[in-house]
Amino acid sequence: MGSSLTVVVNVADGPGTGRDPCYTTAMSRLARSGVRLLGNVAMAGATRPVAEVVADINRWAGYPVQGVFLDRAPATPFAIGPVAIAIQAAQRAGLGDVVLNPGVPPDPTYRDLGAPIVAFDGSWREYRRWSGAGARLGDGHLVHAVPPWEFEQALALQSERGAGFGLVTDLGAPDPYDDLPAWCAAHVAQLAQAGEQRQAAGVPAGSEDTRTTTGS
């Protein structure tokens, strides 16, 4: 899988209604350390009005993010329209780095949109039983509720199944992505500190190796 650390930012089920200076400060520190930042945009299975989705994307353009993470995206061919519109809106807003998360392998027509796809988003127990039908090499796998002593096993299974990117977290229901995984919290703090030190020394951003244990 990839070697870069990506952080999906979620202010209030998206960017919120206004720019939060606390988030801006924290995100800027991560960005200076070379961390890839994506703003979370809830698609709600394409049941949200498209105008709301586009408004969220445009608000994310006011934050130091490189793109958007289209969460809870649809997977059926009959709902691809709103996803295509969202990707186009992100590109117009200068947020060309788009990741699509239906959480399951979508209809093949979604592949034509050109965005990386998360083909699995579920628990460790479900992942071990998952057949992988419909997924492709390079798809993303997000696995939660993994006991810390089984992290390496989960990472190995992601690699074996050809995941191109992904996450392994010890957090579980009701919201496994409400906080950083145990392994990641210390790493992100180190990156933020390194970014501040580099800025003080006048070293250009992006020169740091941001490999994490999520890559293989």
Beta-strand portion reads 15-25%
Annotation field: number of helices: 6
Mean pLDDT: 87
Percent helix range: 25-40%
Radius of gyration: 17 Å
Number of folding domains?
1
Oligomer: single chain
**What's the total count of β strands?**
7
Note down, in words, how this protein is organized:
- The chain has 216 residues and is of the alpha/beta class.
- It has 6 helices and 7 strands, in the order E-H-E-H-E-H-E-E-H-E-H-E-H.
- The protein has one domain (6-201): Alpha-Beta Barrel (TIM Barrel).
- It has helices spanning 21-32, 50-60, 80-92, 124-129, 151-160, 182-201, and strands at residues 6-9, 36-42, 67-71, 97-101, 118-123, 140-144, 165-168.
- The strands form 2 sheets. It has a 4-stranded parallel β-sheet with strand order 1-2-3-4.
- Helix 3 links the parallel strand 3 and strand 4 (97-101).
- The radius of gyration is 17 Å and the shape is globular.
